[in-house]
Amino acid sequence: LKIYNFNHSLTLEKFNSDGVPFKQIFLAGHSCGAWNAIRYAAFKKELFGGTIAFNPNCWPKEENNPVRQYLVGELKTAKHANSLVFASPDDLTHDWKATSTDLAWIADIPGVKWFEYEKGVKVNGKQCKQQEGKKLKNGHSIIFSECSWPHQKLVLEFIKESLVNDKIITVDSKSLENEKTFRDRGSGFVT
Prior knowledge:
With about 190 residues, the protein is of the alpha/beta class. Helices cover about 30% and strands about 15% of the residues. The protein is built from five helices and seven strands. The chain has a five-stranded mixed beta sheet with strand order 1-2-3-4-7, with helices on both faces. A two-stranded antiparallel ribbon has the order 5-6. A hairpin with a 2-residue loop joins strand 5 and strand 6. The longest helix has 14 residues, at about 150-165.
């Protein structure tokens, strides 16, 4: 996977040499970083306990661009990806076909937990705003709005569930079931 060009190996080796097992390291990314986070979960899973992807996309706006074809084609070969993916139906970046509707097939990759924001750049029916108080129109930036903060709990639950599944921590099954928020597609999460 030649596209992974940042010096991740030194960073991961440093964490690991300091006593942090790879399965206790989680990678998060937004936009191109989100797309690569899913790729890491799919193709370099031994390096991370899981990944969190916020509004994944990373290609030019031209229809059928070869970069998009490569990235999508590659990810469609994934057999499993322990990744929590947040996506918006109102992702208005310049990238071609980058909304949650266009990328919903990612939810079908085994191991992916898919969270789709509400249409209209809303959370729990409430309109998201920019820092200046203006209405947020582009769902690609929803992660930077306070309205998305309640979903940080989903990130913590994903990490906890991953650590339990990898037998790094234990939780009695009753308390884990009480905390479980993975819901059906209509409500948000898909497992």
